[in-house]
Specification:
Elements (H helix, E strand, L loop, with lengths): L1 E5 L6 H9 L16 E10 L15 E3 L2 E10 L14 H7 L5 E7 L19 H20 L2 H11 L3 H9 L6 H11 L11 H15 L2 E6 L4 H13 L4 E4 L2 H12 L3 E2 L8 E2 L5 H18 L4 H12 L3 E5 L17 E3 L5 H8 L1 H5 L1 E6 L4 E3 L9 E7 L2
Parallel strand pairs: 1-4, 1-5, 5-6, 6-7, 10-14
Antiparallel strand pairs: 2-4, 3-4, 8-9, 10-11, 12-13, 12-14
């Protein structure tokens, strides 16, 4: 799974990315501070199963804190997009292509309206953040349309003359962004298009195909950033009404980063996603004042900084992934004695057989059955897995 971080310049995008990953990235108050895409790993929270199974887990990656498993998620942060990105403006095509394999997008928006359309600082409240959402959706729609139109005339005539499969042809055209033939079929059905009249599809219908494909293959969560500013509180309710199809999560990236840095330097104890922190080190007056500002203006009203919630909304609410723990009926450890060392994030509808292939190809090839460890029962290869299942794979090899 790969989550892309997108947005225009100077809205706190790189700060948001660093707050999630603690990656060493350039944070600067000017457009195109990010040139090469940054990659890192954030984590999502999953209630661990170790307490239910009366064991202590030893995660191979991520961590488990107070019964909460922090599972890594790969992330990519690209340069700020500008109007006309799909035409190559502002290095747009390069960074759109970098996002082609992303499963979902987090659009960081300056909800306070403190940056204009070019990413330049403005008086908070003087710019409408709705414009940014419209602009970025339009850029992605037009990017998808450009993919569709690259060889549309040639391939539509070929399909018509040779009575080919439109869905297969469109799938080949959009395979780079994660489209499948069944998804293409669902899009055509929703828009009311038929394969027989492919050469008569109008410009509007082509755009609708591109937009619907974009919505399904690049679902988006809005990170409503800078919520510590008064104008952000005024804007967010209006924005939610204007974009009911989007998941919009209030957050403050700079506050999350400050808390994580303070925790890293052992000044406070802070667990990502918590609604408060504990002072454990010696603070200067300035540090104490800054942390108290975060507590009163971010943590109390938002019940946290919202940054962790944004990523979890993308993974669990929008993509609807489920967390699956490999384990055994007789023992929950690996060959090295690590207990419940792994937790995999799997796409919705994953079966026991699909999970076997995820762990190792040989387990899938020689699959016999799976065991639901918590339910203490055997399940077949087509058994759909649920969030927080503990699954043992039994194979013939």
């Amino acid at each position: 799974m790969l989550i892309g971080i997108v947005g225009k310049a100077n809205v706190g995008k790189s700060t948001f990315f660093k707050a999630l990953t603690l990656a060493d990235v350039l944070i600067a108050n000017y457009p195109f501070a990010t040139i090469e895409p940054n990659r890192g790993a954030g984590t999502v929270r999953v209630q661990c199963v170790d307490r239910e199974l009366k064991v202590q887990c030893n995660p191979r990656s991520g961590a488990c804190i107070n019964g909460v498993r922090f599972v890594p998620v790969e992330m990519i942060d690209v340069a700020g997009l500008v109007p006309g990105a799909h035409e190559g403006k502002g290095l747009g095509l390069s960074f759109l292509d970098d996002l082609s394999v992303a499963d979902a997008l987090i659009h960081v928006v300056d909800m306070a309206g403190a940056t204009n359309e070019r990413g330049e600082p403005q008086e908070p409240g003087s710019y409408d953040p709705a414009n940014d959402i419209k602009f970025l959706e339009h850029e992605f729609d037009m990017w998808y349309l450009s993919i569709l139109k690259r060889s549309w005339e040639k391939f539509s005539r070929k399909v018509q003359m040779e009575k080919g499969n439109v869905r297969e042809a469109l799938t080949n055209q959009f395979t780079g962004v994660g489209a499948t033939e069944s998804l293409i079929g669902a899009v055509m059905l929703k828009i009311g298009l038929t394969e027989k009249l492919v050469t008569t599809w109008s410009k509007e219908e082509l755009f609708n195909v591109a937009r619907e494909l974009r919505l399904r293959t690049k679902p988006m969560v809005i990170a409503a950033n800078k919520m510590d500013l008064p104008s952000a509180k005024v804007n967010i309710e209006r924005i939610r009404k204007e974009f009911p199809h989007l998941t919009i999560v209030p957050c403050a990236g700079d506050a999350e980063l400050a808390l994580k840095e303070a925790d890293k330097h052992k000044l406070i104890r802070y667990i990502p996603g918590d609604a408060d922190f504990e002072v454990v080190g010696k603070l200067s007056d300035g540090q104490r004042s800054a942390l108290e500002f975060i507590r009163q203006n971010v943590l109390v009203p938002l019940k946290g900084t919202g940054v962790q919630t944004v990523l979890e909304a993308a993974v669990f609410d929008v993509l609807k992934f489920v967390a699956i723990f490999p384990g055994g009926m007789q023992k929950l450890g690996d060959k090295d004695g690590n207990i419940l060392p792994d937790c995999f994030l799997m796409s919705p509808g994953t079966t026991a057989l699909g999970f076997a292939y995820k762990i190792h190809t040989d387990l899938g090839k020689h699959f016999i059955r799976a065991n639901d460890v918590r339910a203490r029962k055997a399940v077949g290869k087509d058994h759909p897995l649920k969030h927080r299942d503990v699954i043992e794979i039994v194979s013939g090899k």
